[in-house]
Amino acid sequence: MSWTHTDDALHHDFQFADFRQAFAFMTEVAFAAEAANHHPNWSNVYNNVTIRLTTHDAGNTVTDKDRKLAERIDHIFARYA
Question: Which SUPFAM superfamilies does the record associate with it (predicted)?
C-alpha cells in the first residue's frame, strides 16, 4: 500500500465495493488500533475510508507506532481487495 507522508502524518484513502465492506474494514481496524493503543483520525463516506496517522504524544509527528499500524491496516485491507 502506498501511504502518503505529508503534514507530519501518514495518509491513505481506501475504496470498497460498498458501505458494508467499508464499515467491516473500519471495525477490524478499530480492534487493531485498540490493541496497539494507537488510534487513527479517520472518516467514512459510503464506500470510502480516509485514514490519517500521527503520534499525538510525540508532538503530532510520524513514529514507528504509525508505521506499524499502517502496515497492520494494509494487511487488513488486502483481504478486501
Answer: PCD-like
